[in-house]
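Lab notes, practical 5.
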Amino acid sequence: MTPVTMRDLFAAAHSRFLSSPFLPPPTLYLFGGGHVSTAVAKVAGQAGFVIGIVDDRDTFANSERFPMATEIYTSFEDAFEKIHPQLRELIW
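Output from the prediction step:
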């Protein structure tokens, strides 16, 4: 093992380090599958959010309308049972 010298400590003290945390992407749950949610989901998906959609109408909450969604709930009761917001999750 090589001993650390004062020169090594001085060099390390005057160095700059760049760190970038690796965090999971934030999740955005959208309640309602109307035209506003389709626009918000598209932009949020491009910004790196994981998208969840909740609407009790099958014609609005489906993968054809929201291809970027990883979670789609067609029952509010089912959504309320399964969604438990954490620190990096947003509900709109």
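Observations recorded by the TA: The beta strands are 27-31, 50-54, 69-73, 89-91. The helical segments are 6-13, 35-46, 76-82.
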